[in-house]
Amino acid sequence: MTDAELLHYITTTDAEEAEDLYAKARAVREKQYGRDVYFRGLIEFTSFCKNDCLYCGIRRGNARAERYRLTKEHILECCRTGDALGFRTFVLQGGEDQYFTDEKMTEIVRAIRSQFPDHAITLSIGERSRESYEALFAAGANRYLLRHETASEAHYRAMHPAAMKLSSRKDCLFTLRKIGFQTGAGFMVGSPFQTPECLLEDLRFLEELQPHMVGIGPFIPASNTPFAGYPAGSEERTLRMIALTRLLLPRTLLPATTALGTLAGDGREKAMCAGANVVMPNLSPVNVRKLYSLYDNKICTGDEAAECLRCMSLRIKATGFVPSMARGDSLV
Ligand code: SAH
Question: How far is the CA of 73 from the centre of ligand 1 (A)?
Fold first, then answer.
């Protein structure tokens, strides 16, 4: 697609045209992956963060955010709960918490790897050095999620403190990919100051990176952050971005994100109908869930893991897809 065509689809308000786009994306996804929707068990293991991203509820500058970190034993317990429910992929996500040095983090990864030799271990713990990524990979991690957030320089600067650089984030992504991680990039839709041209840059960047997975969700304001007063991103535009990503990167994995489910009750179902094929229900202990508050009103913070699994399975089936507990490796 040309830039003009992409911009047209990014901005269209024609419902029929959007439906047509979703149908095309659905067909591409079905051809590549069939109707399976893969489960990932998300463990949000620390809400401490050294960064100060202007949109994020757990940014360092948010003095109101209550902080927690799980112990290795606690993380392993979440994994065991997940495994017993059938999960074959664990995603450890957190703020950039300096407590988790390479030594501590590799020890955790090694412990999970030794107890669950066949499971996929995914990390989502931000920017680290090449040596750190290599050590984590050697310890047994297979996948890494690091959304680029926006591929536009000016937009990146508007959303982050000056110390954070888009070039560093992009370098991390290429490094992760080179080391051998199945690598996930991604961005928010409707974040403050985003223009259609920013989203076009996101798509072009994804074509260049060829990531194994792309996380796309709407921006949702978080209390006590500089962007608390900005409106949430549009559901429709988020769905169109998911569909366009599916068309441009047919073999990538696309999650139906919790943020989209928060914005609209049936947001994740609509995402599946627009080409998404992954869901990431929460395996974090219920007593800390509300504290991992990236944005306001996040859904599923009160449910046990088993309940989340049941609910998501029903939603997937009701939408005409097939819940899959397989590892669901990327075809990229
Ligand atoms: N520290 C890790 C994990 C970040 S949290 C890292 O740097 O990658 C995971 C994702 O949540 C972020 O990449 C961001 O895209 C998303 N997020 C943060 N604040 C958000 C908000 N207010 N609305 C929607 N998504 C948000």
Answer: 25
Nearest to 125 by CA among 115, 136, 111: 136
Ligand 1 atom with the shortest distance to the CA of 222: 22
Over residues 212-225, the pLDDT tens digits come to 999 999 999 999 99
Residue 126: count other Cβ atoms within 10 Å of its Cβ. Answer: 18
- Provide the residue range defining the domain that includes 175: 3-324
Number of domains in the chain: 1
Rounded to the nearest angstrom, the gap between the alpha carbon of residue 317 and the centroid of all alpha carbons in its chain is: 22
* Model pTM score: 0.98
Is 329 domain-assigned? no
The whole-angstrom separation of Cα 203 and Cα 159 is: 19
The amino acid at residue 97 is: D
Q: Quote the tokens at residue 290.
A: 């509300």
Does any ligand 1 atom lie closer than 6 A to the CB of residue 100? no
